[in-house]
């Protein structure tokens, strides 16, 4: 494996190699993203399958298949129950992440990922064998609990185990696996929709067991992070793991001592959630919350949850709508790979700002085409215009996948100091899941009422968040996590006003030396 080192602002050099154990641990941990992605992708596919709708959502079945009681092309899938099937997962995740914050800090990142795996497997069992709507909802709630635990632990695990110079790329493995999960779900839905007998949806929901088992096995096999071990008082074990993951036993002492000092300061904080509200933590808190709100209000999950439903609404037949969802899933995956190679070279800000322009343009084009061609009771979306809509959706998805998708998780996980990291990640996940729940629960109703204007709504949010990035998000590439205060926040035109020199860990930041 390639070796090298990274230097902090104070002149110290923390030597490290990109060791096999780092790569393997990150891949295994990031399967939590695979499970999350599959859950996101599979729901939109099964809710467009007639046998699934007939069994659980008869009102939607009558409007979409029998075409009875349809008020508008945009309102075929407007159903509170159908939206609840998708959204309850995220509401359960919101509740679970509050508990996961405690387990991440007290029991470690590894144990928290293991708990997530067990919740995922239980949820898959309920969904696959569901005989009625309550059973289906219980399965989704269990899956949501797994999402809460996984989203709490995995990004922190990846940020802490990776050398800073490739931290962005390895952290994006989580988002990469989310996109792989979405694509896998779309492919599975496309195949199972052709199964005769009306039980294809059970196969779609049951195959979620594959990533669930992978996450559970992976969590059992990986080592916990040095940060977590030291934080829990296992100093020698933490030193041993640090030696193993950095690939050298001669120069880990400076990094080890920095982690010990950071842990000591963290333990002095008795109430991490209360500490989050202190003035010196305001930059990280504001940016983390804003990133999660903006990430969901790009409209990406409205497209990813309901891609087959959305394409059906626009006049695509069932096979064509699932096929189009597969295309967007593939674009999502490829673009996330682009992010892995570019995030530590181009930086976070460049990717976010470029994507803002791209997403704004594509959503405006989609809105204009639909405004002229898709009416309440007529659909004049010709093959040529339909292709343009799919291309614009792909352009939008590509921009999101190399920017707001991965960076919405990466930036919060790498900016909170150790004493508030678990609490900060918990708030990040909570806000994300609240916004995801709102979009999942409201999108089909919004589509019914806003019609094509829904894309103008999301493009307006894209414009606002691009302004926010330009003025308020500093660059964090290649900066060691424990040195963010002195090298990032104290140099920002606004955030430096919130930073007190007394809050910088002595010896950790160049500003304190």
TrEMBL record:
- Superkingdom to which the source organism belongs: Eukaryota
Which keywords describe this protein according to UniProt? Answer: Membrane, Sugar transport, Symport, Transmembrane, Transmembrane helix, Transport
Any one Gene Ontology MF annotation carried by this entry is: symporter activity
Q: Where in the cell is it found?
A: Membrane
- The primary site where this protein sits is membrane
Q: Does the keyword Transport apply?
A: yes
What are the record's GO terms for cellular component? membrane
Output the SUPFAM superfamilies linked to this UniProt entry: MFS general substrate transporter (SSF103473)
Membrane topology, record value: Multi-pass membrane protein
Question: What's this protein's family per the entry?
Answer: Belongs to the major facilitator superfamily. Sugar transporter (TC 2.A.1.1) family.
Tell me the protein's name. Putative major facilitator, sugar transporter, major facilitator superfamily
Taxonomic source organism: Lupinus albus (White lupine)
């Amino acid at each position: 494996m390639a070796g090298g080192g990274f230097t902090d602002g104070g002149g110290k050099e923390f030597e490290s190699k990109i060791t096999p154990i780092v790569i393997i641990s990150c891949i295994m941990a990031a399967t939590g993203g695979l499970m999350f992605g599959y859950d996101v992708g599979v729901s939109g596919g099964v809710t467009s399958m007639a046998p699934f709708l007939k069994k659980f959502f008869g009102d939607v079945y009558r409007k979409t298949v029998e075409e009875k009681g349809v008020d508008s092309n945009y309102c075929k899938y407007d159903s509170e129950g159908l939206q609840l099937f998708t959204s309850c997962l995220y509401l359960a995740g919101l509740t679970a992440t509050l508990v996961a914050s405690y387990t991440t800090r007290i029991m470690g990142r590894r144990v928290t990922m293991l708990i997530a795996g067990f919740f995922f497997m239980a949820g898959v069992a309920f969904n696959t064998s569901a005989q009625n709507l309550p059973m289906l909802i219980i399965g989704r709630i269990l899956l949501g609990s797994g999402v809460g635990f996984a989203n709490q632990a995995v990004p922190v695990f990846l940020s802490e185990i990776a050398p800073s110079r490739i931290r962005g790329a390895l952290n994006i493995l989580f988002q990469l696996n989310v996109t792989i999960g979405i694509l896998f779900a779309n492919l599975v839905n496309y195949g199972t929709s052709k199964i005769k007998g009306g039980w294809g949806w059970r196969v779609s929901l049951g195959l979620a067991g594959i990533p669930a088992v992978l996450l559970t096995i992976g969590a059992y096999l990986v080592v916990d992070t040095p940060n977590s071990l030291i934080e829990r008082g296992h100093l020698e074990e933490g030193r041993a793991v640090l030696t193993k993951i950095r690939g050298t036993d001669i120069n880990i002492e400076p990094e080890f001592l920095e982690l010990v000092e950071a842990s000591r300061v963290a333990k002095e904080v008795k109430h991490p959630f209360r500490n989050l509200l202190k003035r010196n933590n305001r930059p990280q808190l504001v940016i983390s919350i804003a990133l999660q709100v903006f990430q969901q209000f790009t409209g990406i999950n409205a497209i990813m949850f309901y891609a087959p439903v959305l394409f059906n609404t626009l006049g695509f037949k069932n096979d064509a709508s699932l096929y189009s969802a597969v295309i967007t899933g593939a674009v999502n995956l490829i673009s996330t790979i682009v992010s892995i190679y570019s995030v530590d070279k181009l930086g976070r800000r460049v990717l976010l700002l470029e994507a803002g322009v791209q997403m704004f343009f594509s959503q405006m084009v989609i809105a204009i085409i639909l405004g002229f061609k898709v009416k309440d009771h007529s659909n004049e979306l010709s093959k040529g215009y339909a292709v343009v809509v799919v291309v614009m959706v792909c352009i939008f998805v590509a921009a999101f996948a190399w920017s707001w998708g991965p960076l919405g998780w990466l930036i919060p996980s790498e900016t909170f100091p150790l004493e508030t990291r678990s609490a900060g990640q918990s708030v990040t996940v909570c806000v994300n899941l609240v916004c995801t729940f709102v979009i999942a629960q409201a999108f089909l109703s919004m589509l019914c009422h806003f019609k094509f204007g829904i894309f103008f709504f999301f493009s307006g949010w894209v414009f606002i968040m691009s302004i926010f990035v330009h003025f308020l998000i500093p660059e964090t590439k290649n900066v060691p996590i424990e040195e963010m205060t002195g090298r990032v926040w104290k140099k920002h035109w606004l955030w430096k006003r919130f930073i007190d020199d007394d809050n910088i860990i002595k010896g950790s930041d160049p500003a304190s030396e």
